[in-house]
Amino acid sequence: MKKITLIILCLFAYLGANAQSDTDEFKIHYGIVAGILPVKLSGITNTAANNKPPSYRRVDTTGIMGNFELLFGVNLPLYRTTNWSIGANLNAGAGRLGSFRAAEGLDSYILDFPEFLYYRNYASTIDFSVFAGFKHTRAPLNFTLPIAGFGINEENSTFLFYGSLKRDTYYSLYSNGDIHSAVKIGEFGIMYFSNF
Amino acid sequence: MIKSLRFLLYIIPLLFFSCEKKILEIVPVTQKVEDLSIQNGGNIKLFSFPSSQVGYAASDTNFIYKTTDGGKSWTQVQFNNSQINSYAKCKKLEFYDDQNGICYLEDSYFLKAVLVTNNGGTTWTRTESNNLAGITTDGKAYICETSPINLKCLIKESKDKGKTFKDLISLEFTEKFEAGKVIGSTIFILDEQGVVHGYNPVNSDTLRYFIGITSTHIPMNDFLFTDWIKVAVGGGINGTYSEYGHSLIMDYDGGNGYYSVDAYQDFAIAVGKYSIVTNMETQDGEKWHEVFDQNGNGFNKIFYKIKFIDNRHFLVSGEKGLIWKMKI
């Protein structure tokens, strides 16, 4: 964790040193997304050893997944002043979702749609953005996450750090009407955009 | 800038809004609503509840149990019949009402005895020495008289709650008699090869279904053939009916043995070793599914018999005197 924090701080220092004031303009960009997805799985599993009669128990498992994808998008300023702007960032990407631990059943190719509104300040020392929106992932198990984060802008590229504000949940409906959480997915990660 | 930040703050709460919960799966669960168990009652393989208060149950013994208070307490009922030895065990137990019923007994040798009571089990009279197939709700009973010379089953009918029997029809088998059952007004006879022969005395229809496999003898413990559903249980669940050969194909192998199946219309439940399964629709493409308790755990009991009470409730019996009223 300390290493990750150190890398992020170094990245900030680098980007901050190279950041240049800019005005926010309509741009088409391409980029990559890399994320970590903590997954909580709750399900009924046969816990019996081999050659023993089945013994079903409700078991909670914490899994970790990762995604990596390529995307294209547009940066769409909606309102601009000399110092700041607000706008929309609309993207569509495709990639792979894979399990690092205990969530192999969710491995798949994915389509991803990170869409958000941002506030960008290009008058300060560091040209930065804060944003909030949603990230919709099309997979065998679709999920939509409200996300928020911040970013550092350079003349032709942008680094964004994002995290989900709330986990998306799928439920098991018991035949007696009770509802139990079955799959909970959250996500945090980075996006890198480079303008055409 | 303040205005734009305020705009963003207004937008963010909308992102949390979700119309309805996303359902990944439907899980069949059941819960015990009443425990009618018999203390030190052994393996309860048979039961019959002619009314909500009066019930009879039998385990691997030469006596049965009776309750007159809806299962709160049970007393032993002896047959007190000089023709019945101490090795005889009740293999079928059926009651028309609180007073009139039949118990079919066998021992490990040659004894086959149909005992009839008309006073709630106080006295029992032996009326036949053949396999009891079953009874109907309108006071009939059917037995199968097998011949040691040929493989015929002479079905005899009683119209007076088992007191007297008359010849009805002779069915020819290719294998020995295994079990009999009456469903609705149709008599079904299962042979050792897994072939079920049926006869409906109301419309004289004869039926033939194959529920086992020919190469190896796999006993099917129970079966159900109605207009709603055709299913047989044994090593697994044979619940897919094939018109070709009029056979039932195994479509669930839960790894356990199953002893009994019952259905309310097309909604079926089968019970067996550490398992209750149902054909409830769960939208996962499978036909049969494990049933769990309300906490999502399986059952660690051996269940022997299931009987529906209505579309949501059923009675199940099992090891160590277990009799539960369940809700699903």
What is the element layout, followed by pairings?
The complex is a heterodimer of chains A (196) and B (328).
Chain A (H helix, E strand, L loop, with lengths): L1 H17 L8 E20 L9 E25 L3 E18 L6 E14 L6 E11 L4 E11 L3 E8 L3 E7 L4 E7 L2 E8 L1
Antiparallel strand pairs in A: 1-2, 1-9, 1-10, 2-3, 3-4, 4-5, 5-6, 6-7, 7-10, 8-9
Chain B lengths: L1 H14 L6 E6 L3 E5 L10 E3 L6 E4 L4 E5 L7 E4 L10 E7 L5 E6 L5 E6 L7 E4 L2 E5 L5 E6 L5 E7 L7 E7 L4 E7 L2 E6 L3 E6 L4 E6 L11 E4 L4 E4 L3 E6 L4 E6 L5 E7 L2 E6 L2 E4 L10 E2 L12 E6 L4 E6 L4 E5 L1
Antiparallel strand pairs in B: 2-29, 3-4, 4-5, 5-6, 7-8, 8-9, 9-10, 11-12, 12-13, 13-14, 15-16, 16-17, 17-18, 19-20, 20-21, 21-22, 23-24, 24-25, 25-26, 27-28, 28-29
Task: State the gist of this model.
Chain A has 196 residues and is mainly beta. Chain A is built from one helix and ten strands. An eight-stranded antiparallel barrel of chain A has the order 1-2-3-4-5-6-7-10.
If you had to describe this structure to a student in words, what would you say it looks like?
The complex is a heterodimer of chains A (196) and B (328). Chain A contains one helix and ten strands, in the order αββββββββββ. With 196 residues, chain A is mostly beta strands. An eight-stranded antiparallel barrel of chain A has the order 1-2-3-4-5-6-7-10. In chain A, 31% of the residues are buried. Residues 15-21 of chain A have low confidence and may be disordered. In chain B, the strands form seven sheets. Chain B has a four-stranded antiparallel sheet with strand order 2-29-28-27, with no helix packed on it. The mean pLDDT of chain B is 87. Chain B contains one helix and 29 strands. With 328 residues, chain B is mainly beta. Chain B starts with a helix and ends with a strand. The interface between A and B is large, with 36 and 37 residues.
